[in-house]
Design brief:
The structure holds 2 protein chains of 2 kinds. Chain A is built from 7 helices and 8 strands; from the N terminus they run H-H-H-H-H-H-E-E-E-E-E-E-E-E-H. The radius of gyration of chain A is 23 Å and the shape is elongated. In chain A, helix 3 runs antiparallel to helix 5, helix 5 packs across helix 6 and helix 5 packs antiparallel against helix 7. Helix content of chain B is 76%, strand content 0%. Classes of the chains: A alpha+beta, B mainly alpha.
Chain lengths: 243, 260
């Protein structure tokens, strides 16, 4: 390994160490503050630096490209980081500026039974701000199923929450679905999740609305990374042994 | 600390006793007798796992009590497979670790069955936790090999260092798989594939430490076996924090608190 490549490897170790320290710090400050920290402007620059370092490493180390498993591992990391940048608030703003596609990152909808709505309330705003979706979500029914036997405290334990909803566009029902926990509705570039809470009740349901930006890149990155690791760490040694 | 007067408790205590017996048999090199006790360990630890499965009507991975029972059963199988497939024989220490793992299940954690909350009723639940359980066991074994590396003479140090690397290489993809599956699950359950929850961040830190280990070892190979071992032990310390401290400490309240 020549001196330049050694410098790159030390840089990789330094970035990993910095990320380890930041992760541990984030674990102590709680999810909300950690989320703010990791999505802050300096951290966005840090994520971008890691992405660039990964791309540079692919150029500088031909062995990373020649070996499919190592290539998959590093491409996977690039995919996850690129997807996360696209999914961030800044990613949404850039999308609007570059492609004119205006999407909210996340918000909530409150829909009454038998009604439909397209107003999304944005989070963490000093006052109520609603953004209109280009389609409506109608709520037919909201219900909760409980386990037959009560929990240790004697109270009923929910088994699942259900929301029968429909997507309405131009006066026509485009899609219907029963949203459950783990089974959100995906339509128009957004995921709609049932948010079981005290706000959700017999007459209304609260839906979390979340943009799907970057998810394909992130999940493709997961597949690449995991496949590359199993190839490198499991398959590679097995093939070597056979030879 | 409380004794469990139940069939589940009996199975756990019997498994602990036989694990300890197997440890002694391995130390005394009792040959066929040791093998026979090893089979008894497998039957009892697997029996404890299967009994719990039937009792709660789902694979026992919901809380730490069930997680430790599952680890106790898996350790026995992985000890055998590691010996046969990777050529790393840690049978004696594995048997001691098995008893240590089952101890909190027998005396510390509550065995009261809990109903699965809606979020846990997902096809990702078992593979997410299962991959982590297997990965953690390999990292546990790697940490043992790392300690042996630090304490060994020059010749054995290299062999033990190679064993550490081999075990981490086997466990790391499982831990990454666990995290990826958990992340996809979180996207469907909690609307975010990474929620910056303390357990998620400690898991990320753990994976990054092992990623650092691989980069360090790529740079220096076996030139500094003790430093390689320190990376492995650092990773395992992070595993322990992720598995236990995050769930017990009030410092780290979050999405994963229900697993206590």
């Amino acid at each position: 390994m020549n001196a330049f490549k050694r410098v790159i490897m030390w840089l990789a170790l330094a970035l990993l160490t910095a990320l380890i320290i930041l992760s541990v710090y984030g674990a102590f400050v709680g999810a909300a503050r950690a989320s703010n920290l990791f999505n802050s402007i300096p951290m966005q620059m840090f994520w971008s630096a890691i992405t660039v370092a990964l791309v540079v490493s692919l150029i500088l180390f031909p062995s990373l490209v020649k070996r499919p498993s190592l290539l998959l591992i590093h491409l996977g990391c690039i995919g996850i980081l690129a997807g996360s940048i696209q999914a961030s608030e800044t990613g949404h703003k850039m999308q609007k500026r570059l492609f004119g596609k205006d999407k909210i990152r996340s918000g909530i909808m409150v829909i009454y039974e038998g009604k439909m709505d397209n107003q999304v309330i944005l989070p963490a705003q000093p006052r109520f701000i609603g953004v209109e979706l280009p389609f409506y979500i109608g709520l037919k029914d909201y219900r909760v199923e409980y386990y037959d036997s009560p929990g240790p405290d004697g109270r009923q334990v929910p088994r699942d929450y259900f929301s029968d909803v429909g997507v309405v566009k131009d006066g026509r029902i485009i899609e219907t679905k029963t949203i459950e926990v783990n089974k959100p509705l995906h339509y128009g570039g957004y995921y709609f999740y049932l948010r079981p809470s005290e706000e959700s009740g017999s007459e209304q349901a609260v839906l979390a609305v979340v943009s799907d930006n970057g998810l394909i890149a992130v999940f493709t990155g997961y597949v690449f990374l995991t496949a590359g690791l199993f190839g490198r760490c499991w398959l590679g040694p097995m093939i070597k042994k056979d030879k | 600390m409380a004794i469990k007067y139940s069939i589940q408790g009996f199975l756990i205590y019997a498994a602990i006793a036989v694990y300890l017996l197997a440890f002694l048999a391995q130390l005394l090199r009792l040959g066929k007798t040791a093998n026979g006790i090893f089979i008894a360990v497998f039957v009892l630890s697997a029996g404890s796992f299967i009994y719990r499965w039937f009792h709660v009507a789902h694979i026992p991975l919901q809380n730490l009590f069930e997680l430790f029972i599952t680890m106790g059963a898996c350790l026995c199988i992985l000890s055998y497979l590691t010996d046969k497939l990777l050529g790393i024989n840690q049978r004696a220490i594995d048997m001691l670790i098995g008893a240590i793992i089952l101890f909190p299940a027998g005396f510390v954690f509550s065995e009261a069955p809990q109903q699965l909350p809606p979020a846990l009723q997902s096809p990702f639940f078992v593979p997410h936790v299962g991959a982590y359980v297997l990965g953690y066991i390999f990292m546990f074994k790697a940490a043992v090999a790392a300690i042996q590396t630090i304490g060994a003479n020059q010749q054995n140090r290299i062999v033990n260092e190679q064993n550490t690397y081999c075990l981490i290489r086997t466990g790391f993809p499982l831990m990454v798989l666990g995290m990826m599956l958990g992340s996809i699950w979180a996207q469907f359950a909690w609307a975010d594939y990474f929620g910056w929850d303390p357990k998620e961040l400690w898991s990320l830190a753990t994976l990054l430490i092992y990623a650092g280990y691989f980069h360090w070892r790529f740079m220096f190979r076996q030139k500094y076996p003790r430093i390689n071992s320190l990376w492995a032990l650092g990773g395992f310390a992070a595993v322990m924090i992720t598995l236990l401290w995050v769930n017990f400490s009030r410092l780290f309240a979050g999405l994963h608190s229900y697993v206590i």
